[in-house]
Amino acid sequence: MRLRVEFTTEPFDLEEAPAHALAAREVMQRARLDAVDVGPFGNTAEGGSDEVLSAVAALLRDALDAGATRVSLQVNVIREETP
């Protein structure tokens, strides 16, 4: 099964990326995922279910440890197309 995760961390800082945002970004970039898109107000990543779920657990742990007061995330199943 393939999954897509979308996430944001708070509090926001419009001047520079806060430590919790950088920590979350690093987790996703280190993970064995097929696609990672990092943006200023939202981030997405895709991959196999085991990889995505492991990355989400690490993201929550690291972002909260780095000062996040809220982590919003959504996980969707990516439907495989059949011929």
Q: Could you explain the architecture of this structure?
A:
This protein has 83 residues and is an alpha+beta fold. The chain has two helices and four strands, in the order βαββαβ. A four-stranded antiparallel β-sheet has the order 2-3-1-4, with helices on one face. Helix 1 packs antiparallel against helix 2 (49-65). The longest helix is centred in the last third of the chain and has 17 residues, at 49-65. The relative contact order is 0.33. The model has no long low-confidence stretch (mean pLDDT 91).
Shape estimate: elongated
Overall pLDDT level: 91
Number of helices: 2
The amount of beta strand, in percent, is: 25-35%
Helix- and strand-based class?
alpha+beta
Q: Can you write the helix and strand succession as a string? A: EHEEHE
> How far do the termini sit from each other?
17 Å
**How many strand elements?**
4
Report the radius of gyration as a whole number of Å: 13 Å
Helix-residue proportion: 25-40%
Q: Unreliable stretches, pLDDT < 50, 5 or more residues?
A: none
Largest beta sheet, briefly? 4 strands, antiparallel
- Order of strands, main sheet, comes to 2-3-1-4
